[in-house]
Amino acid sequence: DTGVSQDPRHKITKRGQNVTFRCDPISEHNRLYWYRQTLGQGPEFLTYFQNEAQLEKSRLLSDRFSAERPKGSFSTLEIQRTEQGDSAMYLCASSHKAGANSYEQYFGPGTRLTVT
Amino acid sequence: QKEVEQDPGPLSVPEGAIVSLNCTYSNSAFQYFMWYRQYSRKGPELLMYTYSSGNKEDGRFTAQVDKSSKYISLFIRDSQPSDSATYLCAMRGISNFGNEKLTFGTGTRLTIIP
């Protein structure tokens, strides 16, 4: 299967701990997105990478959040000093660089974070 | 006010019925319109997209966009129990730096009753 994969699928952590999530996009997709989805809401954009460059970050992404995509392939999203308000589903999506289907973002299964 | 408004439902219809799902939006810059289906505890799956105004049909699904009214719709014909899911509308404008970030509605939870 060559879809977007995310790890872990579920994470339970105590308030104040640091957590890191990983996303492996579809091979050769150079665009990668992180979204956050809370219960009963649609996904909200967090940040965007084109290759290894982080080109845009949402206001939602506080200083406690950092994302990387060191070699333009997989990406990590780290949350430091987690708060209960960080509890959500963190979704990763990837897309092609250009062409007729450049609009199409393929989503991974998400990482569900619970902060206790 | 949110940029994209979507009735969260829940919506329950009998099997075989026609389902109509809708979103309204306020940002005139939106040019690309999508519908995603999301099963419980899964990632969203792209169903349909439309560029600018018009209709698009794919099997039992029809997407409509009316930019003059800032209103988009998804119709599902001959609905099946397997169509039970949350349906999310999403849209975006012209990209900056290739960033095709999507703005989503809240999703409508749909149940098809056998």
Q: Return the average pLDDT of chain A rounded to an integer.
A: 92
How far from one another are the termini of chain B? Answer: 37 Å
Regions with little confidence, pLDDT below 50 for 5+ residues of chain B: none
Topology pattern of chain A, helix = H, strand = E: EEEEEEEEEEE
Low-pLDDT residue intervals, each spanning 5 or more residues of chain A: none
Total strands of chain A: the figure is 11
Overview of this protein structure:
The complex is a heterodimer of chains A (116) and B (114). Chain A is an all-beta fold. Helix content of chain A is 0%, strand content 48%. Chain A contains no helices and 11 strands. In chain A, the strands form 2 sheets. In chain A, strands 2, 4, 5, 6, 9, 10 and 11 form a 7-stranded mixed beta sheet that branches. A 4-stranded antiparallel beta sheet of chain A has the order 1-3-8-7, with no helix packed on it. The model of chain A has no long low-confidence stretch (mean pLDDT 92). By secondary structure, chain B is an all-beta fold. Chain B contains no helices and 11 strands. In chain B, strands 2, 4, 5, 9, 10 and 11 form a 6-stranded mixed beta sheet that branches. The radius of gyration of chain B is 14 Å and the shape is globular. Chain B starts with a strand and ends with a strand. The mean pLDDT of chain B is 92.
Features:
heterodimer; A: 116 residues; mainly beta; seven-stranded mixed beta sheet; four-stranded antiparallel beta sheet; 0% helix; globular; B: 114 residues; six-stranded mixed beta sheet; five-stranded antiparallel beta sheet; 54% strand
